[in-house]
Amino acid sequence: MKRNIMIIAIAVAVAATLPAQGQKQDTHSSNVAPMEIGLNVDGLSLLGKPVERVNGTILTERDLLREMYAIFPYAKQHNGFPKAMEAEIRRGALLMITFEELVYQEALRRKMTIAPERLAKAQTEFRKQFASQLQYQHFLETEVNGSWQVMRTKIKRSLLIEDLLKAEVTDKSTVTLAEVRAFYLSNPERFQVPESYAVQTITIMPPRPANPKQAPVPPTPEQLKQMKARAEAALRQAREAKTYEEFGVLAEKISEDDYRVMMGNHHPLPAAQLPPEVLQAASKLQPGQISGLIQVDGAYTILRLNAHTPTRKQKLQEVSTALRVQMQRQKSDKLRHELDTRLRKNAKIEQLIVSH
């Protein structure tokens, strides 16, 4: 079932935290945390409070809270909405419920209808979302004063919103393979894969201060001599390594940089991001070969080349599926924004509560 029907059921999460109508809410109960339902006073009265009027139709705190749960469904587990995010979540939720109300009003203006059999099927699917008849009845009591007719109207509203969005957004945002190909040919630079190298390293570092807060002290000639001797010993062992695993185990044992915990492995890096000394050495190696000692920033590095990927252009077949999805999403977002702008142009929208 589509989002606009499913979102009605998000109120179950809210309704589960509220007492049935006519029953006083205990804000001290361990099962009802005020922040969990986004409220700081008795829930039922505030949930019915108007937050906005759209062409005369009142949108309530309940509508807003339901959409906030849709945006951040983890609110219940987190005992409410994160303070740093709550204002932004609320703002986004208000924009969404306003947009959907405008879409619904436009569907009514166009005299769009829902076939009885489709509405009946949607009602059946909606009922299946509840674990028990008791939970379902509690939801009806909390949401619509126990009126199935009102609930039916809400489901019909969701279907009308769905249909209008399908006509104005979904159907119009289809991207053909010809459009994908045209974009691909018009933007060759976007599909250029830069030259890259995947390497493992063993690094022998110069002496470090005992206190990390101290400024580095230039190594003495004796320290440099000892460091080079360690590096030459490491190189001899590295050249005995015949596989990725053998080099990696050696890196874990003797390398002195942070990559030793990853078997000396570096993720593939664009050639432009490699130090010139490393790039020069890597460019002379074949996959599986090991370099000599490379001096970089005062350290000695031993390089094992795992893979070299020359610069190339991705083929259309490689990118067409992901590109089509991306283009459809962009087109859909643009159409939704344009629809929202058109509907708001002549609408009368009044905010009734800025915050709670």
CATH topology of the largest domain: Triger factor/SurA peptide-binding fold
Q: Can you tell me the number of structural domains?
A: 2
Q: Mean of residue pLDDT? A: 85
Q: CATH superfamily name of the largest domain? A: Porin chaperone SurA, peptide-binding domain
Count of DSSP E strands? 9
Return the string of H and E elements.
HHHEEHHHHHHEEHHEHEEEHE
Based on the coordinates given, report the CATH architecture of the largest domain. Orthogonal Bundle
CATH class of the largest domain: Mainly Alpha
Overall shape: it is elongated
Largest sheet: 4 strands, antiparallel
Round the Cα radius of gyration to an integer and report it.
32 Å
Q: What fraction, in percent, of the residue positions are helical?
A: 40-55%
Strands across the major sheet, in which order? 5-4-7-6
Strand content: 5-15%
End-to-end distance = 33 Å
Q: Please report the number of helical segments.
A: 13
Parts with pLDDT < 50 across at least 5 consecutive residues: 6-45
Structural class: alpha+beta
Q: Could you describe the 3D structure shown?
A:
The protein is an alpha+beta fold and 356 residues long. The protein folds into 2 domains: 3-173 and 328-351, Porin chaperone SurA, peptide-binding domain (Triger factor/SurA peptide-binding fold, Orthogonal Bundle); 195-207 and 221-310, Chitinase A, domain 3 (Roll), CATH 3.10.50. It has helices at 3-9, 11-15, 43-47, 61-71, 83-109, 116-127, 133-144, 148-170, 177-186, 221-238, 244-254, 276-282, 316-345, and strands at 50-54, 57-60, 192-193, 196-204, 269-270, 294-296, 299-309, 312-313, 349-351. The strands form 3 sheets. A 4-stranded antiparallel sheet has the order 5-4-7-6, with helices on both faces. The chain is elongated and about 90 Å long. The two termini are 33 Å apart. Residues 6-45 have low confidence and may be disordered.
